[in-house]
Amino acid sequence: MIVNPVYHQTSDKLQQELDWITNAKMDSKCFGPLYKKYHEQIFRYVYQRMDDQELAFDVTSQVFMKALSNLHKYEYRGVPFSSWLYRIAKSELYQAFRDRKSRKTISVENMHLFEFIEDFKEEDSLEDKARLTRSLRLLKTTDLQVIELRYFEQRSYREIGGILEITENNAKVKAFRALERLRRLVLSNHKPLIQSVIRKVAS
Prior knowledge:
The chain is mainly alpha-helical. 68% of the residues lie in helices and 0% in strands. It contains 9 helices and no strands.
């Protein structure tokens, strides 16, 4: 599977994060690099699920405030700091839905689904994109989330497990089953080009 440098973390980057976290625990002013590194990712995660930009900014701000105030509780578990931020974001989203009695949504259009499509025929692209988008909309929210994390953000199963608060093995099972459900939806359209996209994403 292609590695996305935006999400992939080398051992050097993880060590740099640990240094930032250690410094931020001693002085909150040192939290800036972590905020700068992950604000866009967390905002996108929140915005995709509430489709309200102003509220998404508010929730994202709350996520980082909670992270900073509880940083002394953070324990490194071999995965990027973002895994902890995603767990806080998930909690803050649920709280926002309860407070406002809102309905959870997923914005498929913002998932950058077609970064993996090479040699896409121009005359077919709009139709095929529409078919794949419709198939994704038919998935359950939990399936869509794990597909996004694994196949479009190229996160490791260990990190997905940390984000979803499940075991690494359970993350593998969920990702496989979600992809199979998407595959069945897409194959029902009998479009060879889209079939090749699904095979590429799964490779």
